[in-house]
Structure formats: C-alpha cells, structure tokens
Amino acid sequence: MTAIARPLCLATLTLTLFGCGPGTNDPPAPNGAGSGQAGGGSGGDANLSAGGGSGGTNGGSSGAPSPPGGGSAGTSGPVACTGTESTVVITDDTNYSLPSTLTIGRSTVRDATDLVFDWSGLTRDLYGKPLNPLLDIDMILVSLWSMTPEELEENLEKDELPLSANKGAITTYPQDQFTSQNLTRFDLFGNPIPEEDLWGYFDTKHPKFQYPQDQYTFLLMASTGTATGKGVRMLSFFTLDPNATETTLTLTDTSTTLQYSVELEAARPVFVPPSTPGITLDWSQMQLNALGNEYVHSQITQAVVAHYATRTLTELETSFVDLETLADGWWSGEVKAGTSIQLGELVNASGAPFPGITDQGIWLVALFCTQCNNPAPWSITLLRPCVSG
Amino acid sequence: MAGSGGTALGSGGGATSASGGAASGGAPSGGTPSASGGAANGGSGAAGASGGVAGAPQGGSGGDASGGAGGSTQPGDDGVFTLNLTLSTAIPTVGIVTFSSSVPIEKAYIDFGRDPNAFEYRAPVDLAEPDHRTLLLGMKQSTSYFVRITAEGGGQTHSSAVHTVETGFLPNGLPVMEVEDQNASALYAEGGFTVNCTGVASGGFPGGFPGGGPGGGGSRSFAFIFDKDGDQVWAYELTDTPVAECSRARMSLDGKHLWVGNFSNVSPNGALMRVPMDGMGAEQTYSFGGRHHDFGILPNGNVLFWEQENGGGYTDGSEGPDIIRELDPNTGEATDLYHEMTDFSALIEEAGGAHTNHANYVPELEAISFSLRHSSTIGLISYPEGELIAVFGGAMTTFPAMSWDVQHGHHVLADRLWVFNNNGTNGGSDILGFDFDLGGMSASPILNYSSGRSSGAFGDVKELPNGNLYVTYSTSGVIHEVSPQGALLREVTTSASLGYSEHRAMLYGPPPPYGE
C-alpha cells in the first residue's frame, strides 16, 4: 500500500475504542470498523495472480520480511503445498495493521444549567456513513471520566480506556421521537434520576461536586442500538465552567474526525491447499493485534472467512468498512473456547459450510473480539492457495 | 410468617440435592503432603477444546474420559484404589474423581496441583457421595495437574499413585483480570479465589457499562471464579438464562452449587438460578418477579432475598418497600421474614422507596443486615424472628456517629461495621469502618479508606478472616484488598463492570460469612 496521498483520506480509522466505545450489536464485521475516508494506498494491485502487485508500504507497515515460501503481497511464482497445511499458525507478520488517529471535538458549557444536547444536525457518523438523526440514534449517553480531554482522547485512540477511570453515566432513549434532550430529562438507563443527584455532577458549586474540570471530562455519545458502549455513531467531549455562556451541546458530522489507514498488502499471506475446508487456524502465537495492543488469545470469539472474486487488495483497503457487503462469500462462526478453530466449521448465511479456498480472487480470514467495544478485527490474514505437488 | 411461594421453575433432573448443612470442611490449601506414589502418571490426554484427561487407573479398572489418553499404572501405589479421573464436559477446568477402595475408609481427601511434590489444593471427599465423587475446583485452563487420593481407615493411611489431568479451555470472552500487588505477602490466603459475574451493566446504572478492551464489552454474561493470580478457573455462561443480568454469584452453603441472581432493578423480572459446580445437569431457576439486586446464604442452606412489595416496578412514582424472604431451594417455597414497613415506613415513604440493595446473614449476632439505599440506612434484624435490633446510618440511626450518603455492600460483625459508601470523597467511593457497642448504643469511626476509585452503584466491602478488607468497586471493575489499617495490598482491574464479590481462601467448605 502506498503512502497515504489522498486528501481527506487520511482517515485514520478511529478505533472508537472507548471504555464504552462503539461496536455493533451484531457480530462485528470489518465494515463496522469505521470508515471515515480510507487512506487507501495505490501501491499496485496486489492481486493474487502470480507476480502481481508491488505491495507498497504505507507508513508503518507491519509486514515482516517474508520467509521463503511465505510470500508477501506480490510474491512471484506458485508455492508448493508441504502437506503440513492442515494447521495454519498465524503470527504478527501475517496480520494487517490499522494505524489510526482520533480527533474528538471539545466544548465548554455552563454548569448548573439544564443543558440541551442536540444531535439533529447529524447526517453522517464518524465513519462517514450516512445516518438519520431521528431514526438511527437510539441512545444518547453522557459519561464522566477522571481524565483530561487529551488523556481521554489518547486512551480512546489506543483502545486502552480503563473502566476504572469512569465516574458515572446517564442516558436518554429517543425512540424515534426527538433529536435533542434536556439534561434534567436524562435517566439512569431507563430509570428516573432524582434531579438532586444530577447536580452533584453538573453543578461545580454543589457540595457533592468532586470533579474539577481540569481533571475530569464528560464524553457525549450518540449510538445506534441500546447496548451500552456499542453502535456509537458520533461523540464529543465537554467540560463545565460557571463562566461559560454556551448551554447547548451540539453533535455534528465533524464532532469527531476519523483517520485511519488499512494495511492489508503488507501482511504476509499464508498458503493453504485449495478446496480444503478442514484447515485449523491457530492464533496462539499472536502477540499483537491490528491495533497494536496485546493479542489476548482468549478474547477471540468469532472467526470469518471472506472471499472477493474480483476485488483488489487496494480496493478492500479503501472500502474497509464495507468488507462484508463487498464479499462474494462470507462464512462465519463463533469461537467458543481455545486458540484455534477449524475453518470448515464456519458457515454462510444459508448454513453452507466453508468449502475451502479457490485460486481465484482474494481470500482472507478475520478474527474478532466481539466482547470488545472496538469492532475492528484483531487480525486479518490473507489465505492463498498452495499448489499440490 | 407464612408467605406465598415463589414459582420454582426447576427443570429437575441432574440437580444435586442440597443437603442444607455445612459441607465437610476442607483441608487447608497449599502445603506439601509427603510425596509418595512416585512420579506423575503417564497419559496427559489431548488438550482439545474440551480438554483432555489422563487416566491411569489403579489396579486395572477405571476408564479414561473421552478425549483423554490412558496412562500406565505407576509403582508405589498400594493397589487399594480403583480410580476414574475425568473433566467436566461443561466446565473443562473442573476435574471429577470417582473411586472405590479395597479397604474401609473413614476419611479421604484428594490433593492436586501443578507440582506433584507441592500440591496446591486439597479437596475433601464426601464419603456419602456415590463412588466418592469429588470435584477438583480451582484449576487453571489448559494446564496439567497432578492428582493423588489419600484415605484413612482402620488405623492406616493409603495413598494412590499420582495421576495427571490436563484441563481444557473455559469460554472465550471472559473478563481479563489484571493484578497489581503492593504487598503480596500480606494478602489473605495468598490471594484466594473470587466469585463474581458480569451482566449487571446491561441493566444500567451510573458508571456501569462494558469497558473496552479484552473481556470488557459485549452482551454476553458469565458467572466466574478467578484465582490468586487473576486467572479464570471456573466459568458458566449466563447469556441465555433468566439471570443474564447478573449482579451476584456465590457458592451454596454445601459448596456444591453456584447461585446466581439478576439485577432486575425496579422490574418484575427477578430470578435466582443455581447450577452445580461441575456445570453438568440442569440449571434450577426460581422466579420471584420483584426480587432484585442481591441475595445471601442462610445457615440452613436456604437463600436470603427480598422482593418489592409491588411485584417489581414503580407505584405512583415510588418503589415502595421490600419484603425480606427466605427460599428453600428444595421446595421452591419462600417464606416472609420481615416487612420493611414494620419499622421503616416513614423513611421509605419519604425516600420514595426502600431500594434494598444488599443483605447478609450475621453469624455473630444471628441476625440479618440489609441496606436501604434511598435512605442511606442499614437495618439489623434478628433471624429468624425478624425483630429490629439496630439501625446504622440514616435518619433513624441508633448511632449518631454513623452517617454517609448512599451505600450498597456492607459487613456487620459483632461489634464492627464496614460500609461501602458510594458517594464518598476524593472523587470516589469510601470504605467507612466503625466500632459499635449494641448494648451501650455507641459507635466510633475507625477507618475511612478513600482510594479515589468509585462505584456509582453496587460496590461492596467485606472483612476477611485475617482482618484485611476486600473492596469491590463494581461498576468500574476494580477490586482492592486492603490491610486493616487501610494500606492497599492488591489492586485487580478489569474492563467489565462486576457484581458483588465473594472472596474465599478455597473453593471447598462453607462460603463467607461462615468461616474458612
């Protein structure tokens, strides 16, 4: 993947990784990882025909030099099957990477005020996907964190927001009825809040207020669905100031900007026999996930094999958020326990099992932590057919 | 008092009968019994997704569990035992030992651990169990363990050869516990075991939602047990059960079951469920619509719980009072122990409801303590009579020195009270300690532990047998073990909101507060 050269496409994917970060209620797919404008490189179509693709790099390639027979994007010549491919052990160098930059808007609003939270102006989410503020926003959540905005943003970007830093949250559920809400009409996940309790958090002069605004930050999130921390579409920060005049917090399409670059081409592919579903994928040797964080093996709860008959890797990188909809074949399955799964156990929407890869198009296998709030797969590995001797 | 029975939705079949009495006491964990029996037996079994089992039956009989490979008999065994060692098919970190012996047995126990020369745990054998069926609890995932039976009878002691078993994997997606010690040598039971659950965040409360990162988010919920290293050693998925919104999991009095209760905050969906510790066999669910928050274990093995009088929900904007009740799990029937309006009517009416959120049996006083959130009050009543003994905190307090703003978990002892004060100081929740004298009706503060950590709801404190405090900041996924003087000894963090904790030295014997 070539260097990111497209304006507006320096979309570093915001791994909207909040302690209460975005995700989807459904099993996350790569297209839920956030689009923004993909910083796709143009480094040669790394199509999988022999010799194809130059596999350019894009700032921070995670690809390691390919071992003999391994091949990187654009490797030349067929690779012979060795007979040991019944188990494929993925390692960090076989993984894609997802460097990102997160920029979250900040506001200062007046304290001790029945603030108004307004999301009526939203037309796109932080991934760049269109949304209807009335119909698509099912929950507004305001949470308080013992961090400065800079610290909170950094932790979110790294997907390392500690729950221990959270000091509380309130909610409101529009139910397709409104696109703004007053603070005093928020509730506690559906339960009424005594107004007196609210002022302990929103009135800096209240005797119970213990959250100096140079040390604490409020996080405002608008989500699809009502699963807490999932399906986040937009967010922003705010702090309180008795001298501020603003009393309305408005979420807009630019309240958060998302920049990411998806690097699939630099990943070393793994070679497997075609038409062979009985391949065991083993991730026990993974050290880091695509986000650069520890690959906790026991957190993989879903596996997906996807096939793209005519797409190029560059196209997939560019349309990362749409990987599922672009797929010509999609087999998924739950990982109940352990650090491996047999790919033949994965099924498509019709219930048909994964039949093994072919020598056509792009095949990849993705592993997800569905218990995590970040929907981006922890690893994506390219599968290529080896040649039987 | 007679009361209406709940609806026991026991599905029957496979449920372990509740003895109602105290389980046979467990031997102390750790330690190294005199090593005999020689080296570990062979056959570690295939460590597949469900784990593998090594079996090396003594004296010929006793087959392998499925998936395991058999081993050979080791010399050194006296040929007394015929043993079968398997793993639970539901929870592959739970070992199951059955055995027979050629000599009479008066007492037996099973030592097991990762080092055959230094067994870590000792499981007491209940001789009344068919085939002396004994569970090995506390084993880590995907790990080899050495197992040996020792039996005493007729003035003699017999020990089996050492067998091996390799545990399987617990479900993926469990919360990951990060442990940081400040003074590990001062920990109770070297860190012990903690029983807890996830799922409470789905019910919603301030500050409680799935954290990011491993194990933190998602809609699945589990009851689980982690060990002194923070490693999960037992887990049971609750996602598709009536108690998915788990706020409390704790072991039964006889140690054979895990009880689970859902949050069901001001809703008519309250339930309790118990599962056998081997996870096999049917779950037993008890539906009490107005039941919520928490439950306790009574000295007869019954379950202490409470229900909103209105069946769960709001009546004219008020939650109303709760009725404290006792469930007999064998019959599914519940009897009323105490109606909170008896002594707290003014408080409850003024506060818009009782919102009982925590209760315990107090062995030293043969009493029940219960927390009324909305009036920042803890009541103490005699059991089973249900007569008011004392009031801690709030407008009705018997002890003026006791005052705080909102509490959940607490621990009443004979002359001491610990309170998890949600709205504390230092930007967080405080642990308040008081000495009190029931006879003289006096009290004095002894400690205010203010770490800055917080739990907007739930949260608990328990005094451990060595005097340390075990503090759970539920909604923020933080646990502290603290010295009696308030020094932090250990911090455990995770990315998931938790329920109330049960912390114990071993997974055998009666649970707290019944002593270990």
Whole-number count of domains of chain B = 2
Element pattern of chain A in H and E: EEEEEHEEHEEEEEEEHHEEEE
- Oligomeric state of the chains in view: heterodimer
Distance between the termini of chain B: 32 Å
Give the CATH H-level superfamily of the largest domain in chain B: TolB, C-terminal domain
Number of strands of chain B: 36
Query: Structural class of the helix and strand makeup of chain B?
Result: mainly beta
Tell me, what is the CATH class of the largest domain in chain B?
Mainly Beta
Largest sheet of chain A: 5 strands, mixed
Q: Tell me, rounded to a whole number, the average pLDDT of chain B.
A: 84
- Which range best describes the helical content of chain B: under 10%, 10-25%, 25-40%, 40-55%, 55-70% or over 70%? under 10%
Gyration radius of chain A, rounded: 23 Å
Terminal-residue CA separation of chain A: 32 Å
Task: Explain what you see.
- The complex is a heterodimer of chains A (389) and B (516).
- Chain A has 389 residues and is mainly beta.
- Chain A folds into two domains: 220 residues, no CATH class; 149 residues, no CATH class.
- Helices cover 7% and strands 24% of the residues of chain A.
- Chain A has four helices and 18 strands.
- Chain A has a five-stranded mixed sheet with strand order 3-9-8-5-6, with no helix packed on it. A five-stranded mixed sheet of chain A has the order 12-18-17-14-15. A three-stranded mixed sheet of chain A has the order 1-13-16, with no helix packed on it.
- In chain A, strand 8 and strand 9 form a beta hairpin.
- The longest helix of chain A has 9 residues.
- The N terminus of chain A is likely disordered.
- With 516 residues, chain B is mainly beta.
- Chain B folds into two domains: 115 residues, Immunoglobulins (Immunoglobulin-like), CATH 2.60.40.10; 334 residues, TolB, C-terminal domain (Neuraminidase).
- Chain B contains one helix and 36 strands.
- In chain B, strands 2, 3, 6, 7, 9, 10 and 11 form a seven-stranded mixed sheet that branches. In chain B, strands 1-19-18-17-16 form a five-stranded antiparallel sheet, with no helix packed on it.
- In chain B, a hairpin with a 5-residue loop joins strand 20 and strand 21.
- The longest helix of chain B is centred in the C-terminal third of the chain and has 11 residues.
- Chain B starts with 6 loop residues before the first strand and ends in a 12-residue tail after the last strand.
- Chains A and B meet through strand 6 of A and loops of B.
